[in-house]
Recover the amino acids of this structure.
């Protein structure tokens, strides 16, 4: 799975990393039980601070996407808790995206098609 | 000696320049991954832009070609020159000038290409890092044992040479005790350690992302690293063989000629090895050309397309943009130290050449002043109190002595420094072209000294006798 980090983005790097790992789990690129690189290896490979990777892993662990232990490092959880509802934060984010799309003249169907595409695990 | 040195320099310089020329300036720029240090873009191969780039590229390639031809011609001329110091100085100047010279058109071309890229509106707007999470930190091809074994063998040889020089092990060698073989063996061992360190660093280089398919990325990076680790391990073993050769021909059985022949073979094999490595690397690139779907534009982080400077990247070592192997991030604190060290080595080499040149050109002086025997050249090298002298002897011909340099100068018109004379460690201050010398003995040390001419030496000898 390819991680794409934009150094000039307003979104902090740890959050970009967290988001892409979540997208990877959703699309099936990262499978349940799959081992993630160690904090040190990933930080060295990406050329970023180990604290940044550690922060992303910590967040993913808190959110229940990954599990970590000293012996095996970080792995994708085999059983990810299914809330079956959109979180308030995501609702706000989705509302922002819909609003921006409507202002810029995007058709409703176009947005729905895009959601369908991403739902099926498609990429840009 | 001058001819052997010239041959070694030719073996080092000519293939290096040829390899650099073909890597920096491939014949067909359109099929290359990079052009003058910039990432290739499809817009570069369209209409008027293609013609402009054709013009820039052929001009810069032509200039580099001239540098190459001039350097090759000068190498041949230097081979015919006489005088060790003059030849060494000119070789070093040619070596540096050629290496810098071949990069200058590249630097200038890179600047022109960056300007063209801006005009085309293709400037690097995003600073995007691609990382394959499946290959991160998992592709390694070098085995620790393959680096450890040759270094341990090397260490044993250095210890053996040291024991011979310390006369703990007795061998029938006239030059045992002069530490020349031990010194050189230790240098080659240090080179081996350096190769191992560099090989380890290269094995830990960031894996390139060329495709969205992790399997392709893994295979590509494994193939590239395997090629590099094979070359590094063979280079390390070759270095260990040269180390053993040093022990045999400079410690056990003294033969400078055989040692130099082996040194020439060593450099020849290294150059052939580099050539094979480059060819294999090119083949890997060709094999994966069609799979390359991800391109990472980092043009703005490369000064002149050669020096990597990226303060946002915490990595020290990065893969070279053009050429083979890796380089260091000049924005990294250790990277800054590495560049400072390179500049210091460059300045030290030039400074040493000036010093050696001045030493060769300045005649030696031997004089008696204030009850002291003074050996003077650029400064007072040795000052011997007359009262400390226990005996003096007149020597007819320096060439009858078995001299081997331990440290100092050993050139046609000057022997100066610590030498092994007939197996004993002594201090020497001689003009070997004149022949006559004075052997001066004190309780602590024996000196072999002369003035610039035999007449002057004779005068000082008579003064000492009276």
């Amino acid at each position: 799975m390819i991680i794409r980090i934009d150094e000039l983005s307003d979104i902090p790097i740890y959050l970009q990393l967290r988001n892409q790992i979540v997208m990877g789990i959703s699309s099936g690129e990262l499978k349940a039980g799959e081992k993630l690189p160690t904090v040190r290896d990933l930080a060295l490979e990406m050329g970023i601070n180990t604290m940044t990777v550690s922060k992303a892993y910590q967040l993913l662990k808190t959110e229940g996407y990954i599990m970590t232990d000293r012996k095996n490092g970080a792995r994708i959880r085999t059983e990810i808790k299914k809330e079956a509802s959109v979180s308030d934060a995501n609702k706000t984010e989705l509302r922002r995206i819909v609003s921006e799309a409507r202002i810029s003249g995007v058709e409703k169907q176009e947005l729905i098609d895009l959601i369908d595409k991403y739902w099926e695990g498609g990429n840009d | 000696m001058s001819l052997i040195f010239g041959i070694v320099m030719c073996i080092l310089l000519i293939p290096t320049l040829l390899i650099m020329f073909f890597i920096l300036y491939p014949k067909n720029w359109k099929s290359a991954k990079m052009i003058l240090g910039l990432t290739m873009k499809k817009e570069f191969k369209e209409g008027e832009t293609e013609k402009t780039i054709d013009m820039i590229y052929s001009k810069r390639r032509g200039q580099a070609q001239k540098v190459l031809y001039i350097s090759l011609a000068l190498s041949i001329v230097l081979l015919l020159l006489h005088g060790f110091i003059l030849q060494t100085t000119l070789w070093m100047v040619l070596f540096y000038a050629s290496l810098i010279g071949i990069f200058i058109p590249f630097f200038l071309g890179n600047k022109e290409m960056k300007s063209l890229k801006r005009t085309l509106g293709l400037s690097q707007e995003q600073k995007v890092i691609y990382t394959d999470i499946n290959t991160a930190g998992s592709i390694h091809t070098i085995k620790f044992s393959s680096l450890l074994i040759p270094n341990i063998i090397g260490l044993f040889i250095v210890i053996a040479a040291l024991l011979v020089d310390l006369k703990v092990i007795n061998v029938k060698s006239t030059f045992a005790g002069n530490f020349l073989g031990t010194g050189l063996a230790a240098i080659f061992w240090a080179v081996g350690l350096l190769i191992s360190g560099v090989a380890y660093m290269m094995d830990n280089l960031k894996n390139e992302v060329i495709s969205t398919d992790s399997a392709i990325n893994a295979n590509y990076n494994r193939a590239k690293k395997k090629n590099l680790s094979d070359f590094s391990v063979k280079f390390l073993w070759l270095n260990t063989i040269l180390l053993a050769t040093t022990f045999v021909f400079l410690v056990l059985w003294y033969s400078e000629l055989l040692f130099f022949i082996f040194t020439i073979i060593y450099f020849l094999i290294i150059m052939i090895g580099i050539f094979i490595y480059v060819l294999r690397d090119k083949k890997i690139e060709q094999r994966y050309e069609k799979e390359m779907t991800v391109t990472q534009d980092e043009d703005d982080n490369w000064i002149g397309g050669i020096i990597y400077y990226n303060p946002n990247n915490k990595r020290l070592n990065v893969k070279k943009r053009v050429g083979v192997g890796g380089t260091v991030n000049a924005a990294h604190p250790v990277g800054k130290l590495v560049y400072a060290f390179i500049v210091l080595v460059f300045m030290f080499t030039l400074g040493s050449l000036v010093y050696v040149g001045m030493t060769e050109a300045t005649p030696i002086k031997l004089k008696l002043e204030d009850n002291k025997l003074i050996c003077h050249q650029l400064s007072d090298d040795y000052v011997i109190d007359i009262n400390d002298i226990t005996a003096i002897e007149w020597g007819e011909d320096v060439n009858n002595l078995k001299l081997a340099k331990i440290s100092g100068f050993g050139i046609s018109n000057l022997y100066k420094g610590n030498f092994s004379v007939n197996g004993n460690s002594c201090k020497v201050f001689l003009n070997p072209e004149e022949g006559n010398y004075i052997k001066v003995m004190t309780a602590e040390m024996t000196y072999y000294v002369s003035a610039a001419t035999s007449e002057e030496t004779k005068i000082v000898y008579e003064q000492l006798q009276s």
About this structure: Chain B has nine helices and 16 strands. Chain B has a mean pLDDT of 87. The first strand of chain B starts at residue 34 and ends at 35.
